[in-house]
Amino acid sequence: MTVSAARIAALPDQLISQIAAGEVIERPASVLKELVENALDANAQTIEVRLEAGGIRRIAVIDDGSGIESHDLALALQRHATSKIRSLDDLENVSSMGFRGEALASIASVARLTLTSRTAQSNNAWQMTAQTEPEPAAGAVGTVVDVRALFDSVPARRKFLKAEATEFGHCMDVMTRISLSHPDVVFRVFHNERAVKQWPAGSMLKRIRDVLGEEFSEQGLIIEANSGTTTLKGLVTRPTAARARADRQFLFVNGRHVRDRTVSHAIRAAYADVLHGDRQPAYVLFLEIDPQAVDVNVHPAKQEVRFRDSGAVHRLVQQVITQALAGQQTPQSRSSSQIVMAPSEPHSVPSPLAYPASATQSRLSLAEPLGRYQSSHNNQAFNTINTQSHNANNSMGPGWQQAHQPLPTTDPIAAHDPTNQNAPVWPLGRALAQLHGVYILSQTSDGLILVDMHAAHERVVYEQLKTSLDQQSVATQGLLVPLVLTASAREVALAQTHEAALNGMGFEIRAGGPQSLIVRRVPALLARGDLDALVRGVLHDIESVGASELLTEQRNTLLATMACHGSVRANRQLTIAEMNGLLRQMEQTERADQCNHGRPTWVAWRMTDLDRLFLRGQ
Predict the structure, then answer these.
(1) Which of helix, strand or coil describes residue 568?
(2) Fewer CB atoms near the end CB (10 Å): N or C, the chain?
(3) Are 166 and 134 in contact (CB under 8 A)?
(4) pTM of the model
(5) Of 328, 353, 376, at which residue does a domain stop?
(6) Residue 458: inside a domain
(7) Nearest to 602 by CA among 610, 594, 611
(8) What are residue 317's phi and psi, to 5 degrees?
(9) For 299, which DSSP code?
């Protein structure tokens, strides 16, 4: 039996709209997103959302925007009819939330939709549905879109909806994202006739606090930076406030919430040195960029964008967040109160790589900070700590560990009275004692600080190692036997296109054929690693985000191991002078409040916290 091929036929408009709805309308939250974005495009200042049964039974969005003229109502429900764009130039410079003109038509094809709108020039509102013509109605200036019985006409789609509570949760996720991106708009949410949320208009920081809570705001670091026509601002949380899930990560590009691999990669790179394990950073970031430099028309639901110069965006985001994390010098408090760090003068910390390779025992490198501390108490000459280092592993280069010898017994600091009111004020205070060979107890001007000496010194040594290597050119090592990799045509093309960038990283990679790469030179510090995985990882990063931090990440992992082994160990008895020297170095070290593994290096108690513990003044 021969089956003839089906003839080609044009699909009916209703079916076309339902197919389009399959791309745009996934669940009630998808409808809500489209309707609220339309309200924002109409310059609404107050938006009210009313949901029933998690949005399955009803979604109503009421705004006080500019409204729709009566003769445009019918067009509003037609596919690809919009007031947002008129030409390709408009599309390439789009600044509105919506622009395709398909949302209302798609929703009307899978639900019962009623549209009521009134402009400021009209004496009354006008109302229509997908089945009726516009007719006069009562209503204030603005627009009301009432959607009922979602997917009732498409049972195959309806059965994939989840429970009411689940769908309502997705709707609230949408409102959370949209409210964060528009702090100047009032939002009210009702569910089953009960008020659920109300976010008044305010500043960006106030909206973040209202939506995400006081704790998120208290743990946040404000960032704001400009680079040409690109602006980045928002809030990133301290590493100690990192979360187990990536559920507090909000990125807005020109006011639109999106997911973007370039920015996500840059943020992870900025947090690489301070996150513990698989913890996730939390942030709310607003990236404002020239509309011509970003393509928002690359995803059916407009949830992704594509940057024209992704490398520049990556560098900006990583540098700004890295600087913010490096600049935060607030001890972790046992209560909601925090110590305000006093500024201290910058000074040059001697690099541990600068010392000759000899000695056998690791110790603190405290000579210069200790000198500043001692000189603030008397002007007489004093003996400093002799600092040495040695090469514990020839492949790492000389000087990766530091050596120690006993301190002089004459110590003017040990006899210093920490209660002296005329003494200099140091942000981390003055050491009082060592507890159980692990912690340093320090008295500040308004409380106490407890320092994990190994974690703190590990960060100090790690930052010194990084600084020393960053100030040098990349040392490379030629391979005695070149490494030949089987590669895809895409990888070969990437290596050829980005040859200069790879050379700057310390690689010499040439095409050996249409499906092979020849590696002749690699960074010396990583020459003993898995070169196959390293090269492929670098090429993948360059393709994905326009840059690669893989070399830096692997180098830093190696340096972190070296710093851990080169730092003071638990049960090492320190003198008061050594403790104070470590505190002074911590004050001058970036990211000193977390160790290399993301754990805190200190906690602080104010006097008010201590008084509360003992019920003083109550």
Answers:
(1) coil
(2) N
(3) no
(4) 0.69
(5) 328
(6) yes
(7) 594
(8) -60, -45
(9) S
Same domain, 367 and 308: no
Q: Which of 151, 167, 199 is the last residue of a domain?
A: 199
Task: Say whether both 222 and 336 belong to one domain.
Answer: no
Which of 334, 345, 445, 355 minimizes the C-alpha distance to 404?
355
For residue 592, give its domain range.
332-618
Q: Number of C-alpha atoms within 13 angstroms, CB side, residue 266?
A: 27
Note whether 314 and 501 are within 8 A (CB). Answer: no
The verdict on 560 and 601 lying in the same domain is yes
Count CB neighbours of 418 within 10 A. Answer: 14
The DSSP string of 107-135 is HHHHSEEEEEEE-TT-SSEEEEESSS--E
Q: Give the number of other CB atoms < 10 A from CB of residue 383.
A: 11
pLDDT digits (tens, 9 = 90+) for 203-253: 999 999 999 999 899 889 999 999 888 999 999 998 878 888 888 999 999
- What would the pLDDT profile of 84-120 be if each residue is shown by its tens digit? 666 666 566 666 666 666 778 888 888 999 999 999 9
- Which residues, 6 or more positions from 48, have their beta carbon under 8 angstroms from its beta carbon? 61, 62, 63, 187, 188, 189, 190
How far from the centroid of its chain's Cα atoms is residue 153's Cα?
42
Query: Phi and psi of 566, rounded to 5°?
Result: -95, 10
Measured CA to CA, the distance from residue 191 to residue 197 in angstroms comes to 9
Decide: residue 417, CB within 10 A, 0-12 exposed, 13-18 middle, 19+ buried: exposed
